[in-house]
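Tutorial, part two.
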Amino acid sequence: MNRIPHSNGDTPPDELTLTTGAAANGGSCVARHEGRVVFVRYALPGEKVRVRLRKADRDRASYWNAEVIEVIEPADDRVDPLCPIAGVDGAGCCDLAFAEPSAARRLKGAVVANQLAHLGGYQWRDEQDAAAEPVGVLGSTGWRTRVRLDTSADGRAGFHRYRSSELVHRLECAQLPAGMLAGVADRRWPAHSNVHVAIDDVGDRHVVVAGGGNRTSAAGGRNRTTVAEGGYEAVQSVAGRSWRVPVTAFWQAHRDAPALYSSLVTEWAELEEGMSAWDLYGGVGVFAAAMARAVGDTGRVLSVDTSRGASRSARAALADLGSVSVLTESVRRALAGQRRGADVAVLDPPRAGAGREVIELLAAAGVSRVVHIGCEAASFARDIGLYRRHGYTVEKLEVFDSFPLTHHVECIAALSR
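Running the prediction step on this input gives:
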């Protein structure tokens, strides 16, 4: 291993005093110590801070990870934390709670611009001029409608500390609206289980417990699921259409995100009557519904997702749309099995992105227009680069602050060739 020795020998220190540089992808700022890169969490660019090195990472050859334990010279954009339980010794939920919200959006935009330039070969905006756009009117707190808690051996629900199995049992995360977790801390749940809580679009609260105990159900299977309150399915609505979505299934966490993304997909896809479209990683079919309206009865829309629960919700919600078919399958296998191409593809992959194989299949199928959504800056930038190598041109690209108080963003691009 290429070790960079510390000046006092090979044993790294426990603490350092550093001056931070630019924000990095993943919620840290970059600093340097004797030629070694140190990624510092809970810092803003240009701050002088005392940090504690993460013990698990100190033997790395090329870089260290650290957490701020004292701010010696704060940046102008530092504020008192907006989340009472987040921070170096708290929960890992709100890792930008100490940044003034508009400054946080500028940091996020700069990170995406940097990733697009370095990983995608695409100049979106200058880093100093980039910013993520706010979503809806809820502001930085109280925006989340779904949350998953884990439980400890004694059955208490909590949030994880950053990169840790330890739980924080204070449940006052600022992302959550008032009352969302009322009474949850007072109960004892099955040990080592997941407690899913959702507030749906009719205002009902749903609490569903998955796993726990000996992890066996009455049928002898693993991961028993029980409903503690409100029913297993939440009612969610977008553009006048309603879905019944399992509380344990994927739905956008930000209250205003589904309507915003659906509207953008409708506009950016540029579908017309009689066209064909693919809704890939389609979940419960929100985008499929928007595309079906555009292609009409003479067009066709294929929605693909691996989740059986999501596919069931999609089939039920879209049963009146004759142009829509729903396939429960991996996107890669689904594309490999298609005999006909499509005019437009909409992709909303998980954090890992779509990747080389899927984008190659799209290009080989002759898809001339793509709307691509990504929730992780690096994988989104990599995918943009893959599209461009296949002859696609980026027509539009926006970055949204869909996860306020955190470093996470949602990126959307329209591409054509």
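Confidence is low (pLDDT under 50) at residues 1-9, 214-221. In part three we will examine how such features are distributed along the chain.
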